[in-house]
Structures are given as C-alpha cells and as structure tokens.
Amino acid sequence: MANAERASAELRQMDDLASSVSPIHSLHPLAKLIVTISYVLATVSFDRYELTALSGMILYPAALFALSGIPVRTCLHKLRFVLPLVLAVGLFNPLLDRTPLFRLGTVTVTGGVVSMLSLMCKGAFCLAASFLLAATTPIDALCAALRRVRVPSFLVTLLLLTYRYVSVMLDEVSVMTTAYRLRAPGQKGIHISAWGSFLGQLLLRSMDRAQSLYESMLLRGFTGEFRYAEGRRAGLRDWIFVLICLSAFALCRFVDLPALIGGLLVR
Amino acid sequence: MLRFESVRFCYEKNRPVLDDLSFSVENGESVGLIGANGAGKSTLIKLLLGLLSGEGRILVDELPVEKRNLPEIRRRVGVLLQSSDDQMFMPTVLEDVTFGPVNYGLSRDEAERRADEVLARLGIPELKHRHNHRLSGGEKRMAALATVLAMEPDVLLLDEPTNALDPYNRRLVIRTILSLPNTKLIASHDLDMILDTCTRVLLLSNGRLVADGPAEEILRDRALLEANRMELPLRFAR
C-alpha cells in the first residue's frame, strides 16, 4: 500500500476506534475532555526531579487502555513519529545538569538524567492521554465538547475542517502517486524533476475537492460554524468519573505514592 | 416554481458558458437537463443554488436567487452532487444525514427521527451507523440521496444520479427517483434514465437552450441530438 493510502487508512482507523463500544467510549465527551486537560496539567506541573511521584501518573492511561480495549501497541504505532520527538526533548539535560542526586550501586545518577527521564515520562504520558481521548471520542463530539468549554468557534471549526480535509488531501496524493507509478515502472518514489508539477497539481486538486465539499456543506445550511447536535447531557456516571479521576490526580500530585508504598515495603 | 429569465454567465469575459437562458419548471414536474460535456448543465445548477452569480434573474418560488434569500432557497432546493464523496463529509451516515436538519435548527432527536424516516423510505435503514468510507458506490449514492431528502426539499436537483453505478444500483436509483413526489431537475448523460424518469427535457448546447419539450419527442429526434453531439438513448438506437 502506498504511504498516502496507508496514512489515509490510519486516519479512518481512528474514526473506527472512536466509534467502538466500551465503558470509556460511552462516557460523555465533556467529561473525558475535562479529565484529559486536568491530567495534562497535573502531569506537567511535577517538578523535574519528582520522577518517582510522577510515575504514579501512569495509572490513568494504563486504566484507560484496559477499560477501553484499545491495545497499547496501536497507540505506540500511531504515535511512532511524534513519540521519538517528545522523548528527544530532554536528551541534552544530562550534559547540562551534572549535579549528583543519588547513587544507584556504583553509578552516580545526576539531576540531568532524572530531569531527562522526567521530561520523557511527562511527554509520553500526556501523548498517551491525548491519544486515548481521540481514540475514544468521535471528532465531532470532541469539537462539541471543546465548544462547551468555550474554546473559540473558529479554532474548533479549524480543527474539524483540518481533520476532514487532511483525508481529502491524502486521497488525492494516493490517486496521483498511483497514476505516476503506473507510468514510471521501476522508479522508487517520485523523481525530483516531477516534484514541482506534482505538488502544484496536488494543490489544485485538493483545492477543487475542498471547494466541492465546502459547497456541499453550504447547501445544507452550513454558515461558518458547526452546529453540533446536542447529544445526551452528561449524567451522574460521567461526573463520578470526573470526580474519581480528579481526586486520583490530586492524590498523585501531592502525595508521592510510589515512595510511600516503597517505604512501607522496605520497612 | 423555478424560473430562469435571460440568464447569462461567463467564467471568462465575453465567453459565456450560459447565454440568454430562459425557461421555467412547474410544481411537481420532472425535467431532464441534457447536453454534451461543457454544455453548461453543472453551471446552471450552481447558479440556481447561488454558488455562482451571473446576469439575468433566477427565481425559486418567486424568491430571487440572491444572497439574502440563499438560506431559504437552499432549504427548499436539495441537490445531489455528481460525486457522492463530495456530498458525504461526516464520519457516519447518520451524522451526514442529520447535518442539514441540525443546521436548520432541528434538535438532535428530531433530526435523528427524520434520518430514520428517510433511510427507511429509501430502504437503507441498515446503513444508519455505517462509516461513510466503508460504503460501496451504490450504498454511498443512496446515502447521499438521504442527506438531501432529510432536508425535506420541495425541489430536487440531481446531477448525474446514476453516474458510475452498476446496473442493479442504477435501477434502484431510478426506482427511488420515480417514487419521489418532489419537483425534479435531473442533469445527466444517461438518456435512458432521463426517459424513464422525466416527462420533459431541456437540451443545452454551448450554453444555449436549443430544445424544450416532451422527453420522448426530443429523445427520439436523432438529427437534433446528433447536431448537438449526443446520441439516441439505447432503447431507440436498436
């Protein structure tokens, strides 16, 4: 399968994942959005040396993976391009911060190493939580929830249309690369001499498709803002979920649970 | 109900795509719009919906097609686009079918009820929760038609409704069109389908209306059709 086709299929796979059935999928999008935002805020608020306390935050994505039935490998596969970038953020910390913090056997662990691991964990946890939100909530429901928390309409519409049009563009890339490959047997990729016209054509074709889709939306009453159909209201179950999660985040944030449990075991 | 009065439209200056076009379509009529490629059929549909604006006057139920009337006109006139992929932009059939009604102020429940009715009427209730990208060509065409009918339009504009359909699905779409009581303007190269579904035909050539009359009469006129780069429907050609 060509790269563009694969990318398009992956995007559609996200739609499929989001419409699966599980206790997490059935939660109100607003509840999931509030919890995810709180999780991200709580996670990034840990001090760079609080690695053990931070490790407790893994419980939330772990629980969600288990309850939603979404395999961890699917998450790792989807995030395979972003995850290395996030993990690379703190790569230079060991060189910049050489303050010894503790010894692990004969090895001295410096502040740089701990802060690097801490940054990596924060990035990975936040990405996993965001992925889980996207994989358990259809994009339209998510956008409706974003509007409910007063995210400006133009930003939400931009997000939704970008999501929709990316697949349109990928479809066009797929058709064009297939047409190219059929007439350029044995060539690997697209020859550099054809890049200019290929990209130009891609732009024109994507614009035409986007225009057609936009006209189709206009003809069905679209006036620049999505009127998200009001689904069911968030119920008791959703608010209990929010309450439990926020309490757990607060507990993890202010009590070093792994150190506490470790201390109890060692004693 | 639909009236075109001396309509003229150019994409490039002094090269009219439609020129001095005048005709009207009465309530309940089913009219075929035929013509060779580039004759101006799709342009005419876009003008009628206010997606393009030209010279002359176009009226829908005495409402002139102009900016302030567009929301009402687009509610009254439903269009089935040539490509179902352009028509279906939401993840699932249900979301696509309810998109229009919700935009026109229906609640989620009312919109869903209407979607259920339309899908049942078209005989495709099982598609309700299906993902658009998993539909076959025929299913997608019927679902696209459902998105239009859910708006409860008075007038239907169908642009190549049988385009790229296999014989079974083509027949299904024809039967569905025949069952719809709305006023219909159907643009197509499928002259046999036009013959099955329309009582009157408008023949466009180089942006001008060259014939307007009973479908059977125009579609049997080999000389007229060939003079305008068209051919007799298959059933008359034998």
Q: Measure the end-to-end span of chain B.
A: 37 Å
Structural class of chain A: mainly alpha
Question: Can you summarize the main beta sheet of chain A?
Answer: 2 strands, antiparallel
Average pLDDT, all residues of chain A: 87
Order of helices and strands of chain A: HHHHHHHEEHHHHHH
Spatially, the strands of the biggest sheet of chain B line up as 6-7-8-3-9-10
Approximately what portion of the residues of chain B adopt beta-strand conformation?
25-35%
Low-confidence stretches of chain A: none
In short:
The complex is a heterodimer of chains A (267) and B (238). By secondary structure, chain A is mostly helical.
Explained architecture:
The complex is a heterodimer of chains A (267) and B (238). By secondary structure, chain A is mostly helical. Chain A has two domains: 1-19 and 138-227, no CATH class; 20-137 and 232-258, no CATH class. Chain A contains 13 helices and two strands, in the order H-H-H-H-H-H-H-E-E-H-H-H-H-H-H. In chain A, strands 1-2 form a two-stranded antiparallel ribbon. In chain A, strand 1 and strand 2 (107-110) form a beta hairpin. In chain A, helix 2 packs antiparallel against helix 8 and helix 4 (59-68) runs parallel beside helix 8 (111-136). Chain A is globular. The N and C termini of chain A lie far apart (57 Å). The mean pLDDT of chain A is 87. Chain B is an alpha/beta fold. Chain B has eleven helices and ten strands. In chain B, the strands form two sheets. A six-stranded mixed sheet of chain B has the order 6-7-8-3-9-10, with helices on both faces. A four-stranded antiparallel sheet of chain B has the order 2-1-4-5, with helices on one face. In chain B, a hairpin with a 2-residue loop joins strand 4 and strand 5 (63-64). The radius of gyration of chain B is 18 Å and the shape is globular. The mean pLDDT of chain B is 92.
